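Lay summary. Proteins are chains of building blocks that fold into shapes, and those shapes determine what they do. In this project we predict the shape from the chain. Here is one chain we studied, written as its sequence of building blocks.
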Amino acid sequence: MNTSARITAVLGPTNTGKTHYAIERMLAYRTGIIGLPLRLLAREVYDRIVALRGPSVVALVTGEERIVPDRVQYWVCTVEAMPPGMGCDFLAIDEIQLCADPERGHVFTDRLLNARGTKETVFLGSETMRPAIAAMVPKAQFMKKERFSTLTYSGSKKISRMRPRSAIVSFSVENVYAIAELLRRTKGGAAVVMGALSPRTRNAQVEMYQNGDVDYLVATDAIGMGLNLDIDHVAFSALTKFDGQRVRYLEPDELAQIAGRAGRHMSHGTFGVTGEAHELDEDVVEAIENHTFRPVKKLQWRNSRLQFGSIERLLQTLQERTEDPWLTRVRESDDLAALRNLSQDAEVVARASDGKSVQLLWDVCRIPDFRGISRNEHANLLRDMYNFLHQHGHVPEDWFARQVKRIDRTDGNIDTLSRRLAFVRTWTYVAQRRGWLKDETHWREATRAVEDRLSDALHDALTQRFVDRRTSVLLRRLKQKEGLVAEVNEQGEVTVGGEFVGKLEGFRFRMDKTASADEAKTLRQASVQALAPQFHLRADRFYNAPDTEIDFTDQGGLMWGEHAVGKLVASQDALKPQVVAFVDDEAGEDVAQKVQRRLQHFIDRKIAALFEPLLAMSRDEAMAGLARGFAFRLLENFGIIPRGEVADDVKQLDQDSRGALRKHGVRFGQFTIFMPLLLKPAPTRLRLVLWSLHKNLDDFPDAPPPGLVTIPAARGVPQGFYAMAGYRAAGERAIRIDMLERLADMLRDKDSKNGFEANADMLSITGMTLEQFADLMQGLGYKADKGERAKVKAAAPEVQPAETPTEEPVEQPSEQPAPEGPSETPAETPAEQPAPESPEEMETFFTFTWGGRAQRAAGGNRPQQGQRRGGGDREGGKGGEQRGKGRGPKGKGGKGPRQDKGAKTFEAKPKKEKQIDPDNPFAAALAGFKAK
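And here is the predicted shape, written in a compact code that computers can read:
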């Protein structure tokens, strides 16, 4: 060693140009070597020197990469891979403060103590190393470098609000991926840099960041080791890391090394925290901003003067202690642990019987554990490698080829590709060892090619997962204030600047794929400027659209074609709901108001058309007194009121008041007061929506399918639903109220005291089986006594088809098929009954008698034979509402067979005497006695 050679320690914080200074000094000599802490940094420096001097004179040597031209002048290496005894004019070691690193520190300490250039040696690193270098290298001169730009603490900030050109640092792969995923959703994407990445993958990721494809970088502390990137802000998402032994807080100088990546050359930088990381203490912030840290007091050391007489002797020399107060023995490293493990293997011990074999064993133990599976698994691999090398002098190529081929696949996700890259690094390292393979050149190229393929696949996978290229491109154009033009096709598909971005659904923009709110927000930000004219054009088209293009849903939504454009909300007047339009904020207030006005016009006209009879009655100024009050009740109840709820009010109505109400189509039924025109499907559907709004229901019940006479009576429906749907629940089913009134007409002249049976007309209009009809009758207040008797042969009576009054809904078949003929013998049995066909043929029948409970609950009275039940009007004619019509063929007072097409029975016009109050039970009973 030339004792007159110059030794310089160039110390200072990051962004001081230390590495640049070392490269300039090296190129001033004919030969030189520089040791760097990371393979990534070594590749970066190698590329810089090649750009200056050409590839023919520059070598790159790392554990997994070896590029050595014939006329090498300058060597760029990782510190561990620096060839010993090179005798170069110049030698430099970067990041010399890593002498204190618990894992790798002993390698850097060895270079500090023993590596020298013949003419000049330069140690680059932190000011914290000044006392240690001064003590261990007394001849060293010191040069202090000041930072070109300032570094300022900016506090805590959410990741979603991180400014562009920021790097977010984490210390675990899982957190790196999670942060990158969040940035993809909120900012369009991020590049990922980790120490485990191959240089090819890392360079491809960095290139995306450097050229502006993405504005964010997510990295481990690998970026702290000299990687030169255009970063304005560094944010720590965590302040602790697992150092191989335990989870510990990072020291201020470690934080400064990473934070120092912010601000390049003369550009100032900032640093802060994000995520779950707490605010930095004031003293830590001050130390980082002023670059004042506690000096390094201990250097990691391991004896480098090894003896290979035996495995035991090698272990002894590796574990020697030092008395130097500056040095502390490094904790057990991976290579020492592997040697200790293999020293327990009998076959290995038998082979390692001489110095050369022991030295070979040590070289094998120094293969890094790139796979990181377990120490035992790693030791098993090393044992196989050692046995091959010791027995054959080389690793069998067929065995090696199988190992490489097994991982030469580019399918799989990020974790799978990363694992294969870690595996291939092992075989790349083996291929770089001189003499370990017969055809070294071939396998160096082959393993490098596999690594490149896996690196490219990993880059593609990282980009696909963590970069939304479309959003990134749009945001870049937006940032550069380029004019963005949106195009919307007939299907509502939106393209901006040629990029498909989503669809316009009504007046709301939706991304083209499932996305979080943050993703939608980002994409909207990029395209809202271009969409603004489209919103106005669409609003004009909607405002002039006919009502036939707009509809409401059973849940109160408002649709324009297939797109939701608003919803109904309740107001004080149930028949005058208000409208809320679904319009993106970015569309502007003018568009929102235009859409809201058009929807309000639509629903107002829809209510006016479908509820015209009800609204006309409410506007009739000729109606006064009790009639007007009752009309108001009908208006409040959308034209349908169960009679039991207004029994007292009905009793107070005189014939003139009833006539005024009937003029507007009001029917006073036995069970329900209603307007038949409002039972049609369209008014029923709207009535249920308005009623649900008025009741503030969270879930609106759907309208029954149109045309069904009966429907299942579901449990748990809101109170009042069946009346608003135009039905009355009775037993297991609910019957339409107009059909119920027709059934009531049929039951009026039946002997409810002594019992009667159902006839074919009753079953026909309900469309029920006999058993279902019995359940219905019990729900209406009747008792149903079931019996059995011998079946008799009887001619089926002719049943006139029921004709639906013009103002009532058109009847459709119910859910149950109507019985083909009478299912029982009519109550009026013919005088001459045919004899039973056979005693074995039996039939079921029901005898119905009045029970009274359900009927009284509905506001009616107990029916008597020949009497009107429940107070319903005995009125025939159109809709059953005109008195005196529908008499039988025997003239006034005649009771011949019905000739009308309706299903109701009719009476003659009453005598000119005092009217009997139909709701007075005593008067009705007296009328019953007179009838007898």
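What the prediction tells us: The two ends are 142 Å apart (CA to CA).
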